[in-house]
């Protein structure tokens, strides 16, 4: 039986924490990290690493065959703001990469995890309690690639029996690797700036409400959906999952409970504000809860406390 797991985009915000978590669950030698970037020396020894350009079919096929890969977590993609700046590059990587992954998964009999997003929704989607099955007419290139990817994954599942599954992830808050080029990145940057300078200038308006999740919950959700019994899944691509929903001013108020002199001000970036305004304010994740038992562990208060502790410790070690 093929049991090894391949993670693409392993050096990114999610991959940096998903790879160690998968290695903990399934053994270090059974999890192959891959990225177009090379890891720092100390991370190369933690387990197998392959240099991989996800738009090159032969490279994917060679790695999947060589390591007898049974499951692919395909994370390599451009985030929303970068995709809006470079729509052609976003289509090339986000769709070109996924198509090739699915083709190799079909040929080699692999299961595939795909991270969809709140970005798969658009301005005509109900913004509050956003249903699992609803209108998806996104107005960003990021969103176009996410909806297309959800459809393509479902197509490969139905037509070719590829066990493709996904989550619509909200903004992810984490302290190991920073995100880059996303609209929800403010909710990570704010912690670095609060600890270092007690001051943050936010690029979204104070009352912009968006779904969010702390990375430990996101990792549990990604492993959880792939371990779910396929017989009980009604949906596949992709499940709404969320843990909390807050605005920049609510997050700042929570941080102020720990850092009373923390100050936030605002310099709105119209591009990222328009993206955020087109996304849900809070999703209904009932299907994930019912079909495979999803439930988050962290809310705004517990996430903020843990972020400040862990990131504070990390910054004291490195600065
Ligand atoms: N965090 C992502 C972004 O802001 C949303 O999926 O682009």
**Counted beta strands:** 14
Q: In percent, how helical is the residue content?
A: 40-55%
* Residue runs with pLDDT of under 50 for 5 or more positions: none
> What is the CATH class name of the largest domain?
Alpha Beta
SSE-based structural type: alpha/beta
CATH 4th-level superfamily of the largest domain: NAD(P)-binding Rossmann-like Domain
The number of helices is: 12
Distance between the termini: 46 Å
- Provide the list of bound ligands, each named once: serine
Q: How large is the radius of gyration?
A: 19 Å
What gross morphology would you assign?
globular
Summarize the helix and strand pattern as letters. EHEHEHEHHEEHEEHEEHEEHEHEHH
Biggest sheet: strand arrangement: 3-2-1-4-5-7-11
Account of the protein in words:
Strands 3-2-1-4-5-7-11 form a 7-stranded parallel beta sheet, sandwiched between helices. The chain has a 3-stranded mixed beta sheet with strand order 8-10-12. It is globular and about 55 Å long. α2 (about 40-45) links the parallel β2 and β3. It is built from 12 helices and 14 strands. It folds into 2 domains: about 5-170 and about 215-240, NAD(P)-binding Rossmann-like Domain (Rossmann fold, 3-Layer(aba) Sandwich), CATH 3.40.50.720; about 175-210 and about 245-280 and about 295-319, UDP-galactose 4-epimerase, domain 1. It is an alpha/beta fold and about 325 residues long. α3 (about 55-65) packs parallel to α5 and α5 (about 85-110) packs parallel to α6 (about 140-160). The mean pLDDT is about 95. The structure holds serine. Serine (SER) binds near residues 169 and 182.
